[in-house]
Amino acid sequence: MGEESVLALQRTLVDAALMADPGALERDPAGLAAAHGLAGGDQSAFLRFRLRLMVYRNMVRSDLIEPVETTCFVTQALMEGAGLWDECLTAFLAGRTMQSPFYRDLPAAFLGWLAATGWGQDRWPFLLQLVHCELLSGLVTHHPGGDPMEPSQAHPRLSDRLVLAAPTQLVTYGYQVHRVSREAPIPAPGTVHLIAYRDAGGVAQWMELTPATAALLLAAQRTGIGQAALDLGLSDLSEAIELLADFQARGAIQGFG
Q1: Percentage with pLDDT > 90 across the chain
Q2: Looking at the chain, which runs of residues are DSSP E strands?
Q3: Among 56, 118, 135, 136, which residue is least crowded by beta carbons within 10 Å?
Q4: Is 72 helix (H, G, I), strand (E, B) or coil?
Q5: Are 16 and 27 in contact (CB under 8 A)?
Q6: What is the pLDDT of residues 100-131, one digit of tens each?
Q7: Which structural domains are found in the chain, ordered by start?
Q8: Prediction pTM value
């Protein structure tokens, strides 16, 4: 079999697995093969192994869906409550937006597809933030970490810059998506500033921040704690210093230097 024939066969199998409606594969598999330019022998094989091809389709789709359902379990519960989860996944797979060869990248591709298509966002305006929050939880939990810093003092000095731990993320949402669950998947509206970090047990934790603290954590990475506080107009830093030390103790901040 030549290279072009192999590529044509691969494209046909991809179509068989990802197309939204499997009716053509069920009713006329030989015709499907012919429409993709496959030779007579391959057309006969598609007809002969129709049932096996349907099993192949189901297995491929199950493997592709599993990482999305594992990561976006609250989103799944939300859409299943409306009877739309299967429809959403069918449209996602049919969109063929997956570019990475790694299963771990499928949830991010799902988020990208939602953002590009707008699917479901008229009904759930918080949908992108919900999925992003779920992805971020997985990223923080499974992040490989970073290079360790030399031990630093227990309390930061005003001249120090802070260094976040490698898994730590700062984010602002317009809905309280960090508070949802399978049982209550609809978040309350309201702007919230968050730090997501990995605790000593390797589990992602979320903590709400005041706008001033969130701004300080961002700015102090660039200019140092004292200069960041000055730029932000913060006069009393005693509470902020204690908070930064607490974040370091929790593992959210890697150190100061």
Answers
A1: 52
A2: 162-164, 169-175, 189-198, 204-209, 253-256
A3: 118
A4: coil
A5: no
A6: 888 899 999 999 999 999 999 999 999 999 99
A7: 1-48 (no CATH), 147-256 (3.90.930.50)
A8: 0.87
Distance in angstroms (rounded) separating the CA atoms of residues 66 and 175:
26
Q: How do beta strands 189-198 and 204-209 pair?
A: antiparallel
Name the residue type at position 58: N
User: If you ran DSSP here, which 8-state letter would residue 102 be given?
Assistant: -
Tokens for 131? 């999925």
Cβ–Cβ under 8 Å, residues 70 and 64: no
Q: What are phi and psi of 92, to 5 degrees?
A: -60, -50
Asked if residues 137 and 202 have their Cβ atoms less than 8 Å apart, the reply is no
CA distances from residue 32 to 5, 41, 93, 205 in whole angstroms, order as listed: 15, 13, 19, 49
Cα 65 to Cα 89: distance, rounded to the nearest angstrom: 7
Q: Which helix (H) or strand (E) holds 134?
A: helix 127-142
pLDDT tens digits for 48-88?
A: 988 999 999 999 999 999 999 999 999 999 999 999 999 99
Instruction: State whether residue 178 is helix, strand or coil.
Output: helix
> CA distances (Å), 132 to each of 46, 92, 108, 173, 176, in order?
40, 16, 8, 10, 12
For 220-232, letters b (16+ CB in 10 Å) and e give bbeebbbebbeeb
Orientation angle between helical segments 127-142 and 50-71, nearest 10 degrees = 80
* Residue 225 near residue 237, CB atoms below 8 Å: yes
